[in-house]
């Protein structure tokens, strides 16, 4: 019999808390049960396995990331759009590092629903590239450069990897400025 008040959403919320606090690798059914103050078998009334929890966590992560990127992008184009989207992704990664890690791990062969949700943030990065007038194959290359650059910075920042030396905020502004320059002159670069 399911424990009163416990449901799938609460199990996933506990998994998200654990991931943010201790890393995605720390999300286990035992850890979730402990966080919820229940015995592990109680969870099986709400989730079938740890794989299901991780899938639900990925879905939640992609929903949150897409929401943040969408809100950041409204009414913007060019440099303003680029900056807002990059900042939204960085902020998400720093504020919710475990959830961000779950969003990165979300692309799973054979899971059409999850992969569809995984494409939502990608569409926003495509819009950034399109705002620079890029289309076709060159737009795909530019989008990959943009996404991997922003992701790399966000990922390192999420694990506090910029503790020495110059300000990470200043580095981030230089990254966005250099991406802007590259996207603005893409035809020269790709020639």
Write a structural description.
- This protein is 74% helix and 0% strand.
- The chain has helices at residues 8-22, 29-36, 40-43, 50-73, 78-95, 97-104, 112-130, 136-158, 168-184, 186-190.
- The chain contains ten helices and no strands.
What is the mean pLDDT? Answer: 92
Number of helices: 10
User: DSSP strand (E) fraction?
Assistant: under 5%
Helix content class? over 70%
Helix/strand/pairing category: mainly alpha
Backbone shape: elongated
Largest sheet: none
Q: Unreliable runs, pLDDT <50, ≥5 residues?
A: none
Number of strands: 0
Determine the oligomeric state from the structure: single chain
What is the CA-based Rg, rounded? 19 Å
Ends apart, CA distance between termini? 65 Å
Order of helices and strands: HHHHHHHHHH
Defining traits:
191 residues
Concise structural overview:
This protein has 191 residues and is mainly alpha-helical. The chain has 10 helices and no strands. Helix content is 74%, strand content 0%.
């Amino acid at each position: 019999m399911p424990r009163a008040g416990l449901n799938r959403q609460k199990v996933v919320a506990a998994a998200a808390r654990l991931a943010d606090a201790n890393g995605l690798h720390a999300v286990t059914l035992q850890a979730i049960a402990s966080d919820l103050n229940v015995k592990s078998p109680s969870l099986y009334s709400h989730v079938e396995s740890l794989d299901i929890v991780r899938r639900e966590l990925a879905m939640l992560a992609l929903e949150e990331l897409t929401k943040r990127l969408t809100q950041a992008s409204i009414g913007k184009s060019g440099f303003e759009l680029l900056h807002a989207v990059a900042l939204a992704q960085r902020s998400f990664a720093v504020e919710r590092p475990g959830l961000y890690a779950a969003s990165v791990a979300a692309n799973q062969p054979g899971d059409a629903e999850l992969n569809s949700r995984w494409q939502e943030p990608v569409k926003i990065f495509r819009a950034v590239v399109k705002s620079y007038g890029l289309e076709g194959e060159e737009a795909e290359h530019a989008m990959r450069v943009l996404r991997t650059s922003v992701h790399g910075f966000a990922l390192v920042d999420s694990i506090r990897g910029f503790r020495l030396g110059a300000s990470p905020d200043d580095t981030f502004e230089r990254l966005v400025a250099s991406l802007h320059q590259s996207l603005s002159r893409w035809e020269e670069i790709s020639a």
